[in-house]
Design a protein that fits this description.
Layout (H helix, E strand, L loop, with lengths): L1 H12 L4 H26 L7 H15 L1
Length: about 70
């Protein structure tokens, strides 16, 4: 995240016009934040999965069969 805060300053100092620096930093922030979120989902997938509901449906269906 330190990279995203320093990117606009580096682009302006390098001579990139202000509008170009804003667009480049916004695009880089969007992409890098998305990659970070994908990594978080890969590391911890279970809070998003409805495992409890799937388990309850499975129990009711197996109970009806028996």
């Amino acid at each position: 995240m330190m990279y995203l805060t320093n990117l606009p300053l580096a682009l302006v100092v390098s001579g990139t016009p202000s509008l170009g620096a804003m667009i480049a930093s916004a695009l880089a922030s969007y992409v890098l934040t998305g990659v970070d979120e994908i990594g978080m989902e890969i590391e911890h997938p279970f809070p998003l999965l409805p495992l409890q509901q799937i388990y309850e449906v499975y129990c009711w269906e197996s109970y009806d069969v028996a």
